[in-house]
Write a structure and sequence with these properties.
The chain is of the alpha+beta class. It has a domain at 27-117: OB fold (Dihydrolipoamide Acetyltransferase, E2P) (Beta Barrel), CATH 2.40.50.140. The chain contains three helices and seven strands; from the N terminus they run αβαββββββα. Strands 2-4-5-7-6 form a five-stranded mixed β-barrel. It is elongated. The protein starts with a helix and ends with a helix.
């Protein structure tokens, strides 16, 4: 066999392997009701409920915290995050969690925060000035 054929077969095999591994990592977005119904690992989008407690004691366990989240449907549930508390957590505009429902709580292993832009006030000021 020519080396170009062998190289082509190797490239195709690697591409198939990448596609298979990527398809196993697909997680769907859901709210609390959908996450409870499916029982699968999902991504959950919501906002921090600021009038409920955030429990984080880094000296007891630096990779565990609990807080309350309001999903996009308006339902409020307690979250157990099995990771360190991110910087500027309380300032976040929205939170994306990856995890699954365990009883009446959502157990998350990953969290992404959407924080307010430091340029937001400046943009508003510039727009007002131009008008």
């Amino acid at each position: 066999m020519k080396t170009s054929y062998i190289l082509g077969i190797a490239v195709i095999a690697v591409a198939i392997g990448v596609l298979i591994s990527a398809s196993n990592d697909v997680t769907t977005y859901a709210n609390f009701a959908q996450a409870t119904k499916s029982g699968d690992r999902v991504k959950l989008v919501g906002t921090l409920v600021k009038d409920k407690p955030v429990d984080y004691d880094p000296q007891k366990n630096a990779d565990f915290m609990t807080f309350w989240l309001r999903d996009e449907a308006g339902e409020v549930r307690q979250i157990e995050l099995h990771a360190a508390k991110p910087q500027d957590f309380e300032r976040s505009e929205s939170i994306v969690l990856t995890g699954e429902m365990k009883g009446d709580k959502f157990s998350a292993s990953e969290m992404l925060l959407k924080c307010p832009s430091k340029y937001k006030d400046q943009e508003v000021y510039v727009r007002e000035k131009e008008l």
